[in-house]
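Subject: for your reference before the review

Hello V.,

The reviewers asked for a structural picture of the protein, and I figured it would be easier to keep everything in one thread rather than splitting it across files. Below is the amino acid sequence we used in the manuscript, unchanged from the supplementary table.
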Amino acid sequence: MKTLLILCLFFTKAYSYDINDWASTEYIYIAKPIYIYKVESHSDEIDGKLGNKLSDLIVKMKKSLQSKNHIYYYFEIQEVLYGETEKFITIDFEFEDKYTKCNLKNNFDDHNNSEFWNTEIGRSVFSKNKTAVTNCFGEYRDTRRVDSCFEIDKQYLLIKNDNLKTKQYELIDSVEDNWLQHVRLKAKEIAK
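And here is what came back from the structure prediction:
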């Protein structure tokens, strides 16, 4: 009976996360990428609805680039579930190897697949070169960086919360999506 109780607690934690895990949430947005800017060595590539128009955004990004192998995603926010009301947001990643087109298209069958509810599984991935460390007080800290990619005009649930790790940038194909419904409830809880 004790084992069954422990298993129930484990699966409840894996599925719902503790409300404390959500307390550090800065924002939760439903958004679509409308612009992608990629810097790879000395060449760059632009994709998106802005076309060939050299906007202030492009100039700003070019001036702010500190290193090669960087990609910027410019999102139009469709709905704010939690956080500051914004119209647009930029998310960027540094990639380690040659950048390839986005291959993270899995939405886990509208997030009904039980594999997704494992705390380490999500559409995003951990970078290869960072590792988890334990400090001198014996406290465990995960220093791996989360990497992701996005496609123009697809819809994503963007969550700024490091506790969620690989679940921060999930592809949403339906209003009935299980993760979207779960996050809507959590957004209401943390807004109280």
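For the response letter, the relevant points are probably these. Residues 2-16 form the longest helix (15 residues). The two ends are 36 Å apart (CA to CA).

Happy to draft the paragraph if you're swamped.

O.
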